[in-house]
Amino acid sequence: ALKRLLGADKEECNNIIREINTLKQVSGHPNIIRFVAASFIDRTQNAGAAKRAEYLLVTELCKGGSLYDCLEKELAPDVVLRVFYQACKAVAHLHQQTVPINHRDIKVENFLLGGDGLLKLCDFGSASTDTYAPDVSWNAHQRDMLEDHLGRCTTPMYRSPEQLDTWANYPIGVKTDIWALGCILFCL
């Protein structure tokens, strides 16, 4: 599959490069989409047309659609168990890296069905090794900045309580992926 990513500024380009590097790092696990290649096309010098950096990301092709597509019909309990087990294995692989990776956008749309019959986690655009530890010393501006950031890299339906209420002063890290897995199990 080919994914085209456009970066209008340095921050967006850095985010795209981070996404590609994260996928390269975790690729090879049977439940994570396989990285094939990536390329960069510099269109920032174009006259007239949009001046954006263009990145092309090639991954394995998953013709089975997304897990979301499977929810149109009721799944048998053994299928739910098999699917959820594979989703957990993919997330565990991220969390077991030397520096744990938090996907931050675990949802049914980001799990694809591979040609090998396995579930594959994809879309690492929100993935991060950052953790946040709001506490009583944080002011409203710091919390607003964090909430704005989380709003850009997470899906509301799958957000954990600590992501929704930064005033509760709970740490925000890889455990948020576990909450999102629970949301997926509920959907299944």
TrEMBL record:
Species of origin: Culex pipiens (House mosquito)
The molecular function terms in GO held by this entry are: AP-2 adaptor complex binding; ATP binding; protein serine/threonine kinase activity
Domain Protein kinase: start-end pairs: 1-188
Q: Name one GO cellular component term.
A: cytoplasm
Q: Supply the source organism's classification.
A: Eukaryota, Metazoa, Ecdysozoa, Arthropoda, Hexapoda
GO BP, sorted A to Z? positive regulation of Notch signaling pathway; regulation of clathrin-dependent endocytosis
Matching InterPro entries, A to Z? Kinase-like_dom_sf (IPR011009), Prot_kinase_dom (IPR000719), Ser/Thr_kinase_AS (IPR008271)
Where does the source fall among the domains of life? Eukaryota
Q: Does the keyword Nucleotide-binding apply?
A: yes
Question: What's one Pfam family here?
Answer: Pkinase
Q: Which reaction does it catalyse?
A: L-threonyl-[protein] + ATP = O-phospho-L-threonyl-[protein] + ADP + H(+); L-seryl-[protein] + ATP = O-phospho-L-seryl-[protein] + ADP + H(+)
UniProtKB keywords? ATP-binding, Kinase, Nucleotide-binding, Serine/threonine-protein kinase, Transferase
Does the UniProt entry include the keyword Kinase?
yes
- Annotated EC: 2.7.11.1
Q: What is this protein called?
A: non-specific serine/threonine protein kinase
Query: Per its UniProt record, what PROSITE patterns does this chain match?
Result: PROTEIN_KINASE_DOM, PROTEIN_KINASE_ST
